[in-house]
Amino acid sequence: MRKFIIVIFALVSLHSHAQFGKDPLINLENFDKQRVYWGYFLGFNFYDFKIDYKTPQPVDIAIKNTTGFNVGLVGVLRVHENVELRFEPGLFYTQRDLEYPNFTEQGDRLRQVKSTYIHFPMLLKFMSKRIGNIRPYLNGGLSATLNLSSNSKSEDDNLQRRFRVQPWTYNYEVGFGIDLYFEYFKFSPSIRGVFGFSDELIRDNDPNSPWTSQIESLKTRAVLINFTFH
After folding, report:
1. How many structural domains comprise the chain?
2. What digits encode the pLDDT tens for the residues 155-198?
3. Dist. CA 167–CA 147, nearest whole Å
4. pLDDT digits (tens, 9 = 90+) for 40-56
5. Residues near 220 by Cβ (< 8 Å), separated by ≥ 6?
6. What is the Cα 102 distance to its own chain's centre?
7. What is the Cα–Cα distance from 82 to 61, expressed in whole angstroms?
8. Helical H runs in 77-225?
9. Which range of residues forms the domain containing residue 97?
């Protein structure tokens, strides 16, 4: 990931004086006048869970997140000079490790929650006035996510070391980024937060399960870092 980010920023810095310095040559001057256009994105994600408990716990469940990978397509509808409606479906891979404090055996203590998401966000993008070849923006909207690794149809639960969540989740998203206009394409690095609305956890078959009985709700939280090309 570190090498990839270094390469991206090296590309952005290339010809920086001519492209983004004082009195730059204006690239893609009419690009944002298109009614409809397309693109794709690559990026990284950092998924987490927000856990609320039924009663205060002496020690919370520890959550370790890892760096995941995003890839997807972008469809854009220009609705105003400074506003776009964007549909950005993507495939996201991630993993979260839940460590329960009340167990001594590693097999009972650790739950690895590996997820493959198909993500469907519908976003509004609010752009500032373009300054040379740079245009900052804010974006936000709603999304639905299908978890292909939810285990929701499994009869096994944590007693058989199977952690289960709902297949569909619904979220709101907010973020910001910057459009950089190069000679032949527009490059848009961005960062966005994802916040789940509803409880995703499927309880164990035993109502007194030590893995799920103390949990009031479990909701997705995530940070997405995307590099979009148009």
Report:
1. 1
2. 999 999 999 999 999 999 999 999 999 989 999 999 999 999 99
3. 5
4. 999 999 999 999 999 99
5. 47, 48, 49, 50, 145, 169, 171, 194, 195, 196, 200
6. 31
7. 44
8. 106-109
9. 2-229
